[in-house]
User: Fold this.
Amino acid sequence: MKPYAENDIIDILNSDDLQVLQELLQSATKCRLENIGDKVYLRGLIEFSNYCDRNCFYCGLRKGNRQLKRYRLSKEEIVQTAMLAFNSGYHSICLQSGEIDSPLEIDFLVEVVEEIKELSQKADKDSKGLGITLSVGELSYHQYKRLWEAGAHRYLLRIETSVPQLFGRIHPPSQKFETRVECLRALKDIGYQTGTGVMIGLPGQTAEHLLQDLKFFQAEDVDMLGMGPYIPHRSAPLSKLSPEQQLDPYTTTLKMLALCRLLMPDINMVASTALQSINPQGLRMGLKAGANIVMPVLTPDDMRGNYYLYENKLYKKPQELVEEINSCGYTLGLWEWGDPLHYKRRIKVKVGDA
Ligand code: SF4
Assistant:
Protein backbone atom coordinates (compact mmCIF):
# COMPACT_ATOMS: atom_id res chain seq x y z
CA MET A 1 0.00 0.00 0.00
CA LYS A 2 2.87 2.41 -0.67
CA PRO A 3 3.39 5.29 0.05
CA TYR A 4 1.66 4.68 3.41
CA ALA A 5 1.60 1.67 5.68
CA GLU A 6 -1.88 0.33 6.40
CA ASN A 7 -1.68 1.48 10.04
CA ASP A 8 -0.78 4.99 8.93
CA ILE A 9 -3.84 5.08 6.67
CA ILE A 10 -6.11 3.99 9.52
CA ASP A 11 -4.59 6.69 11.76
CA ILE A 12 -5.06 9.37 9.07
CA LEU A 13 -8.69 8.40 8.49
CA ASN A 14 -9.45 8.40 12.22
CA SER A 15 -7.59 11.63 12.97
CA ASP A 16 -9.39 14.88 13.90
CA ASP A 17 -6.17 16.86 13.54
CA LEU A 18 -6.51 19.55 10.85
CA GLN A 19 -2.75 19.59 10.43
CA VAL A 20 -2.88 15.94 9.32
CA LEU A 21 -5.51 16.84 6.71
CA GLN A 22 -3.50 19.85 5.47
CA GLU A 23 -0.32 17.82 5.03
CA LEU A 24 -2.20 15.08 3.20
CA LEU A 25 -3.76 17.58 0.80
CA GLN A 26 -0.38 19.17 0.12
CA SER A 27 1.12 15.78 -0.73
CA ALA A 28 -1.83 14.97 -2.99
CA THR A 29 -1.54 18.29 -4.85
CA LYS A 30 2.18 17.73 -5.42
CA CYS A 31 1.58 14.17 -6.61
CA ARG A 32 -1.16 15.32 -8.99
CA LEU A 33 0.96 18.08 -10.55
CA GLU A 34 3.92 15.74 -11.01
CA ASN A 35 1.90 12.94 -12.56
CA ILE A 36 -1.05 14.37 -14.48
CA GLY A 37 -0.48 18.13 -14.47
CA ASP A 38 -2.90 20.90 -13.59
CA LYS A 39 -5.71 20.25 -16.08
CA VAL A 40 -9.31 19.83 -15.01
CA TYR A 41 -11.65 18.16 -17.51
CA LEU A 42 -15.38 18.69 -17.75
CA ARG A 43 -17.91 15.90 -18.25
CA GLY A 44 -21.33 17.29 -19.09
CA LEU A 45 -23.76 15.21 -17.04
CA ILE A 46 -27.11 14.41 -18.65
CA GLU A 47 -29.44 12.65 -16.20
CA PHE A 48 -31.73 11.32 -18.89
CA SER A 49 -34.15 9.27 -16.78
CA ASN A 50 -34.96 8.87 -13.09
CA TYR A 51 -36.82 5.57 -13.47
CA CYS A 52 -35.11 2.79 -11.55
CA ASP A 53 -35.93 -0.86 -10.94
CA ARG A 54 -33.76 -1.05 -7.83
CA ASN A 55 -34.31 -0.22 -4.21
CA CYS A 56 -30.96 0.81 -2.76
CA PHE A 57 -31.59 1.80 0.87
CA TYR A 58 -29.80 5.16 0.57
CA CYS A 59 -31.17 6.53 -2.71
CA GLY A 60 -33.97 8.97 -3.48
CA LEU A 61 -34.54 7.44 -6.94
CA ARG A 62 -35.34 3.99 -5.53
CA LYS A 63 -38.33 2.26 -7.03
CA GLY A 64 -40.13 2.32 -3.68
CA ASN A 65 -40.14 6.14 -3.57
CA ARG A 66 -43.71 6.74 -4.76
CA GLN A 67 -43.55 10.51 -4.13
CA LEU A 68 -41.02 11.08 -6.87
CA LYS A 69 -42.21 12.45 -10.20
CA ARG A 70 -40.61 10.24 -12.82
CA TYR A 71 -39.29 11.48 -16.16
CA ARG A 72 -37.46 10.19 -19.20
CA LEU A 73 -35.95 12.54 -21.79
CA SER A 74 -36.69 11.82 -25.44
CA LYS A 75 -33.92 10.82 -27.83
CA GLU A 76 -34.09 14.25 -29.44
CA GLU A 77 -33.75 16.03 -26.07
CA ILE A 78 -30.71 13.97 -25.08
CA VAL A 79 -28.97 14.35 -28.46
CA GLN A 80 -29.69 18.07 -28.56
CA THR A 81 -28.27 18.58 -25.05
CA ALA A 82 -25.19 16.51 -25.93
CA MET A 83 -24.54 18.53 -29.09
CA LEU A 84 -24.93 21.80 -27.20
CA ALA A 85 -22.26 20.55 -24.81
CA PHE A 86 -20.00 19.52 -27.70
CA ASN A 87 -20.31 22.88 -29.40
CA SER A 88 -19.48 24.62 -26.10
CA GLY A 89 -16.14 22.79 -25.84
CA TYR A 90 -17.03 19.84 -23.60
CA HIS A 91 -15.69 16.90 -25.53
CA SER A 92 -16.98 14.38 -23.01
CA ILE A 93 -20.44 13.77 -21.63
CA CYS A 94 -21.86 11.31 -19.14
CA LEU A 95 -25.29 9.78 -19.71
CA GLN A 96 -26.74 8.71 -16.38
CA SER A 97 -30.05 7.22 -15.22
CA GLY A 98 -31.52 4.86 -12.67
CA GLU A 99 -30.79 1.24 -13.44
CA ILE A 100 -32.06 0.19 -16.87
CA ASP A 101 -32.13 -3.36 -18.08
CA SER A 102 -35.18 -3.96 -20.26
CA PRO A 103 -34.36 -4.74 -23.91
CA LEU A 104 -36.34 -1.69 -25.03
CA GLU A 105 -34.38 0.65 -22.77
CA ILE A 106 -31.08 -0.81 -24.01
CA ASP A 107 -32.20 -0.43 -27.65
CA PHE A 108 -33.11 3.19 -26.91
CA LEU A 109 -29.73 3.93 -25.34
CA VAL A 110 -27.83 2.23 -28.16
CA GLU A 111 -29.63 4.49 -30.65
CA VAL A 112 -28.90 7.57 -28.56
CA VAL A 113 -25.18 6.75 -28.32
CA GLU A 114 -24.93 6.01 -32.06
CA GLU A 115 -26.64 9.24 -32.99
CA ILE A 116 -24.50 11.38 -30.67
CA LYS A 117 -21.32 9.80 -32.05
CA GLU A 118 -22.40 10.26 -35.64
CA LEU A 119 -23.51 13.88 -35.25
CA SER A 120 -20.50 14.98 -33.21
CA GLN A 121 -18.05 13.37 -35.63
CA LYS A 122 -19.79 15.06 -38.53
CA ALA A 123 -19.78 18.42 -36.73
CA ASP A 124 -16.00 18.34 -36.30
CA LYS A 125 -14.28 16.01 -38.71
CA ASP A 126 -10.89 16.62 -37.08
CA SER A 127 -12.05 15.31 -33.73
CA LYS A 128 -13.12 11.89 -32.47
CA GLY A 129 -16.52 13.36 -31.69
CA LEU A 130 -17.96 13.32 -28.20
CA GLY A 131 -16.45 10.98 -25.64
CA ILE A 132 -19.37 9.15 -24.02
CA THR A 133 -19.42 7.84 -20.47
CA LEU A 134 -22.35 5.73 -19.34
CA SER A 135 -23.65 5.20 -15.83
CA VAL A 136 -26.80 3.10 -16.02
CA GLY A 137 -26.10 0.29 -13.57
CA GLU A 138 -25.61 -3.47 -13.66
CA LEU A 139 -26.18 -4.90 -17.15
CA SER A 140 -25.27 -8.17 -18.85
CA TYR A 141 -21.96 -8.64 -20.67
CA HIS A 142 -23.85 -8.64 -23.96
CA GLN A 143 -25.62 -5.35 -23.14
CA TYR A 144 -22.36 -3.67 -22.14
CA LYS A 145 -20.82 -4.92 -25.39
CA ARG A 146 -23.65 -3.50 -27.50
CA LEU A 147 -23.25 -0.08 -25.90
CA TRP A 148 -19.47 -0.23 -26.40
CA GLU A 149 -19.94 -1.08 -30.05
CA ALA A 150 -22.40 1.80 -30.37
CA GLY A 151 -19.59 4.17 -29.32
CA ALA A 152 -19.55 4.54 -25.52
CA HIS A 153 -16.05 4.14 -24.14
CA ARG A 154 -16.22 4.88 -20.42
CA TYR A 155 -18.45 3.40 -17.73
CA LEU A 156 -19.04 4.36 -14.13
CA LEU A 157 -20.38 1.71 -11.76
CA ARG A 158 -19.89 2.49 -8.09
CA ILE A 159 -19.36 -0.44 -5.80
CA GLU A 160 -20.52 1.92 -2.96
CA THR A 161 -18.53 -0.18 -0.45
CA SER A 162 -16.10 -3.00 -1.06
CA VAL A 163 -17.06 -4.65 2.24
CA PRO A 164 -19.66 -7.32 1.38
CA GLN A 165 -21.26 -7.16 4.84
CA LEU A 166 -21.74 -3.40 4.65
CA PHE A 167 -22.94 -3.70 1.03
CA GLY A 168 -25.58 -6.12 2.32
CA ARG A 169 -26.74 -3.57 4.91
CA ILE A 170 -27.39 -0.83 2.35
CA HIS A 171 -28.93 -2.93 -0.43
CA PRO A 172 -31.85 -5.34 -0.56
CA PRO A 173 -30.91 -9.05 -0.66
CA SER A 174 -31.66 -9.22 -4.39
CA GLN A 175 -28.70 -6.93 -5.09
CA LYS A 176 -25.47 -8.87 -4.79
CA PHE A 177 -21.99 -7.56 -4.14
CA GLU A 178 -20.52 -10.32 -6.33
CA THR A 179 -22.67 -9.28 -9.30
CA ARG A 180 -21.39 -5.73 -9.14
CA VAL A 181 -17.78 -6.93 -9.06
CA GLU A 182 -18.49 -9.21 -12.04
CA CYS A 183 -19.94 -6.21 -13.92
CA LEU A 184 -16.82 -4.14 -13.26
CA ARG A 185 -14.65 -6.96 -14.58
CA ALA A 186 -16.86 -7.39 -17.65
CA LEU A 187 -16.52 -3.69 -18.45
CA LYS A 188 -12.75 -3.87 -18.27
CA ASP A 189 -12.69 -7.01 -20.34
CA ILE A 190 -14.71 -5.35 -23.10
CA GLY A 191 -12.30 -2.42 -23.16
CA TYR A 192 -14.13 0.36 -21.33
CA GLN A 193 -12.30 2.92 -19.27
CA THR A 194 -13.75 1.68 -16.02
CA GLY A 195 -14.69 3.74 -13.00
CA THR A 196 -16.04 2.88 -9.61
CA GLY A 197 -16.29 4.53 -6.20
CA VAL A 198 -17.73 4.42 -2.72
CA MET A 199 -19.90 6.44 -0.39
CA ILE A 200 -18.05 7.84 2.59
CA GLY A 201 -19.47 8.35 6.07
CA LEU A 202 -22.10 5.61 5.90
CA PRO A 203 -23.62 4.60 9.24
CA GLY A 204 -21.40 1.89 10.69
CA GLN A 205 -18.56 2.45 8.20
CA THR A 206 -15.10 2.45 9.78
CA ALA A 207 -11.60 3.48 8.75
CA GLU A 208 -10.84 -0.23 8.33
CA HIS A 209 -13.68 -0.50 5.78
CA LEU A 210 -12.28 2.45 3.84
CA LEU A 211 -8.81 0.90 3.88
CA GLN A 212 -10.40 -2.16 2.28
CA ASP A 213 -11.94 0.14 -0.36
CA LEU A 214 -8.51 1.54 -1.21
CA LYS A 215 -7.14 -1.98 -1.60
CA PHE A 216 -10.13 -2.91 -3.76
CA PHE A 217 -9.52 0.01 -6.14
CA GLN A 218 -5.89 -1.02 -6.49
CA ALA A 219 -6.65 -4.72 -6.93
CA GLU A 220 -9.29 -4.02 -9.59
CA ASP A 221 -6.86 -1.62 -11.29
CA VAL A 222 -9.57 0.94 -12.01
CA ASP A 223 -9.08 3.91 -14.35
CA MET A 224 -11.48 6.36 -12.72
CA LEU A 225 -12.98 7.05 -9.31
CA GLY A 226 -16.14 8.88 -8.34
CA MET A 227 -16.45 9.06 -4.56
CA GLY A 228 -18.67 11.23 -2.46
CA PRO A 229 -19.87 11.80 1.09
CA TYR A 230 -22.96 9.95 2.21
CA ILE A 231 -25.85 12.44 2.37
CA PRO A 232 -29.17 10.97 3.56
CA HIS A 233 -32.42 11.21 1.58
CA ARG A 234 -35.56 11.40 3.69
CA SER A 235 -37.45 8.94 1.45
CA ALA A 236 -34.74 6.31 1.77
CA PRO A 237 -34.75 3.78 4.66
CA LEU A 238 -31.08 4.33 5.52
CA SER A 239 -31.85 7.90 6.62
CA LYS A 240 -33.97 6.47 9.48
CA LEU A 241 -30.96 4.64 10.94
CA SER A 242 -29.29 6.57 13.72
CA PRO A 243 -25.62 5.95 13.12
CA GLU A 244 -23.97 3.99 15.94
CA GLN A 245 -20.72 5.39 14.58
CA GLN A 246 -20.00 7.65 11.66
CA LEU A 247 -16.83 9.15 10.23
CA ASP A 248 -17.23 12.79 9.23
CA PRO A 249 -18.43 12.48 5.61
CA TYR A 250 -16.82 15.70 4.36
CA THR A 251 -13.29 15.57 5.74
CA THR A 252 -13.10 11.79 5.32
CA THR A 253 -14.02 12.16 1.63
CA LEU A 254 -11.20 14.68 1.20
CA LYS A 255 -8.80 12.27 2.89
CA MET A 256 -9.94 9.38 0.70
CA LEU A 257 -9.49 11.47 -2.46
CA ALA A 258 -6.00 12.48 -1.39
CA LEU A 259 -5.04 8.91 -0.46
CA CYS A 260 -6.33 7.63 -3.80
CA ARG A 261 -4.31 10.25 -5.68
CA LEU A 262 -1.18 9.21 -3.78
CA LEU A 263 -1.78 5.49 -4.25
CA MET A 264 -2.98 5.70 -7.87
CA PRO A 265 -1.31 8.83 -9.29
CA ASP A 266 -2.46 8.49 -12.91
CA ILE A 267 -6.20 7.80 -12.59
CA ASN A 268 -9.01 10.31 -13.21
CA MET A 269 -10.94 11.36 -10.13
CA VAL A 270 -14.14 13.38 -9.79
CA ALA A 271 -14.76 16.28 -7.42
CA SER A 272 -18.34 15.06 -6.97
CA THR A 273 -21.51 17.12 -6.79
CA ALA A 274 -22.16 15.51 -3.40
CA LEU A 275 -18.87 16.91 -2.11
CA GLN A 276 -19.87 20.35 -3.39
CA SER A 277 -23.35 19.97 -1.89
CA ILE A 278 -22.15 19.12 1.61
CA ASN A 279 -19.74 22.06 1.92
CA PRO A 280 -19.42 25.35 0.00
CA GLN A 281 -15.66 24.74 -0.27
CA GLY A 282 -16.20 21.22 -1.62
CA LEU A 283 -15.07 21.83 -5.20
CA ARG A 284 -11.99 23.82 -4.28
CA MET A 285 -10.96 21.30 -1.62
CA GLY A 286 -11.73 18.31 -3.84
CA LEU A 287 -9.36 19.70 -6.49
CA LYS A 288 -6.75 20.27 -3.78
CA ALA A 289 -7.16 16.65 -2.74
CA GLY A 290 -6.24 15.55 -6.27
CA ALA A 291 -9.52 15.42 -8.21
CA ASN A 292 -9.15 16.36 -11.90
CA ILE A 293 -12.70 15.90 -13.23
CA VAL A 294 -15.78 18.09 -12.71
CA MET A 295 -19.23 17.16 -13.98
CA PRO A 296 -21.47 20.17 -14.68
CA VAL A 297 -25.11 19.09 -14.73
CA LEU A 298 -26.71 19.69 -18.14
CA THR A 299 -30.05 18.01 -17.39
CA PRO A 300 -32.85 20.40 -18.48
CA ASP A 301 -33.87 22.77 -15.67
CA ASP A 302 -37.45 21.50 -15.38
CA MET A 303 -36.30 17.88 -14.83
CA ARG A 304 -33.23 18.14 -12.65
CA GLY A 305 -35.20 18.71 -9.43
CA ASN A 306 -36.45 15.14 -9.79
CA TYR A 307 -32.97 13.62 -9.87
CA TYR A 308 -32.16 13.78 -6.17
CA LEU A 309 -30.21 10.70 -5.12
CA TYR A 310 -29.67 12.56 -1.84
CA GLU A 311 -31.14 15.63 -0.14
CA ASN A 312 -30.10 19.25 -0.89
CA LYS A 313 -28.27 18.45 -4.10
CA LEU A 314 -26.49 21.54 -5.36
CA TYR A 315 -26.77 22.67 -8.98
CA LYS A 316 -24.11 25.17 -9.96
CA LYS A 317 -24.27 26.70 -13.42
CA PRO A 318 -21.47 25.47 -15.72
CA GLN A 319 -20.05 29.00 -15.90
CA GLU A 320 -19.86 29.21 -12.09
CA LEU A 321 -17.93 25.94 -12.01
CA VAL A 322 -15.55 27.14 -14.72
CA GLU A 323 -14.89 30.38 -12.81
CA GLU A 324 -14.26 28.46 -9.60
CA ILE A 325 -11.85 26.06 -11.33
CA ASN A 326 -9.96 28.98 -12.87
CA SER A 327 -9.86 30.85 -9.57
CA CYS A 328 -8.18 27.82 -7.97
CA GLY A 329 -5.37 28.13 -10.52
CA TYR A 330 -6.12 25.04 -12.61
CA THR A 331 -6.20 24.87 -16.41
CA LEU A 332 -9.49 23.93 -18.04
CA GLY A 333 -9.11 21.02 -20.47
CA LEU A 334 -11.63 22.00 -23.12
CA TRP A 335 -11.83 20.52 -26.65
CA GLU A 336 -10.28 17.21 -25.58
CA TRP A 337 -11.45 13.94 -24.08
CA GLY A 338 -9.15 13.92 -21.07
CA ASP A 339 -8.82 10.16 -20.88
CA PRO A 340 -7.13 8.77 -17.78
CA LEU A 341 -3.40 8.29 -18.23
CA HIS A 342 -3.82 5.10 -16.26
CA TYR A 343 -6.01 3.63 -18.99
CA LYS A 344 -3.51 4.44 -21.72
CA ARG A 345 -0.77 2.71 -19.74
CA ARG A 346 -2.97 -0.26 -18.86
CA ILE A 347 -3.91 -0.87 -22.48
CA LYS A 348 -0.29 -0.62 -23.62
CA VAL A 349 0.70 -3.27 -21.09
CA LYS A 350 -2.21 -5.45 -22.18
CA VAL A 351 -1.08 -5.50 -25.81
CA GLY A 352 2.57 -5.98 -24.82
CA ASP A 353 3.66 -2.52 -25.91
CA ALA A 354 4.84 -1.18 -22.57
S1 SF4 B 1 -28.42 4.01 -6.46
FE1 SF4 B 1 -28.82 3.70 -8.64
S2 SF4 B 1 -29.63 1.59 -8.76
FE2 SF4 B 1 -29.79 2.21 -6.61
S3 SF4 B 1 -31.89 3.03 -6.42
FE3 SF4 B 1 -30.52 4.77 -6.87
S4 SF4 B 1 -30.58 5.03 -9.07
FE4 SF4 B 1 -31.41 2.99 -8.61
